[in-house]
Amino acid sequence: MTIDLLAACWTTAGNAGPSLGDEISPNGLVERIEITSAAGFRGMGFVFADLIRARDEIGLPNLRKILEINGIKHVEVEFLSDWWTSGADRAVSDQTRKFLFEAAMVLGAHHVKVGADYRMTSFDLDQMAEQFSILATEAAEVGTKIAIEFMPFSNVPDLKTGLALVNTASHPAGGLMIDIWHVQRSDTTYAELACVPLERVIGVELNDASAAQIGDSFEDTIMRRVPCGLGEFDIKGFIETLWNIGWRGPWGVEIIGEKFRNIPISEAIPEAFNSTMREFQTLRNVTGLQ
């Protein structure tokens, strides 16, 4: 079995990142797609700003054609927040939601990535699960799924809470995005990860960093990720754990870091691919990969 890697949006965005201005990459979409494909990736992620740009410059149907021509078969779109709220915040979220679902439908997206409450307000499991189920229902109607990413700086801070949410929602089109970064920073154990039912996993993301957090958790997550093998995470153990519960991909590669952003994408994207594949190369005898 071969491995399909998906380059998350920030892995290909060059000098752009979450909460760092308008989030628009200084590099053109076609350039990013071509470099991503040539590096070996078979999946690619797009943030809201990318998709608006694509709609306005070339049209979403043409974006899909370009992806297909370049052999990109797995697409991720992101990012939706405030989907559980009401009032003005929900009105803004609903506009984003409508467009992300439109893009997901046109592009045949594997999933739409969503987050929880970074304001750290109280966590009402039943209320959030009800809204998550509605969100997943709408996603299924356009042929995609919802992947919620638990993050230590949100009110869904760890695997336990995220799993409780998706289990309570109990919708086949809604599940977890499991990012090794947030697994490590939330002190989630691989033993806990090994107990997650495969049907609750929508996406998986790989990256690396120092074992200890540097600075506050949000700063750490957007400034200090590095390609696989350049940090101290137990990436092989993470891959083995997900493989053993039945995950077969696509495997996301999400590198968000100040140093990485400042490397030309012609170098950064191939490095992201090659460094991740090296982790799989050492596991061939264990997993039977080809």
UniProtKB/TrEMBL annotation:
Annotated ranges, domain Xylose isomerase-like TIM barrel: 34-268
Pfam families (alphabetical): AP_endonuc_2 (PF01261)
InterPro entries: IolE/XylAMocC-like, Xyl_isomerase-like_sf, Xyl_isomerase-like_TIM-brl
PANTHER family: BLL3656 PROTEIN, HYDROXYPYRUVATE ISOMERASE
Name assigned to this protein: Unannotated protein
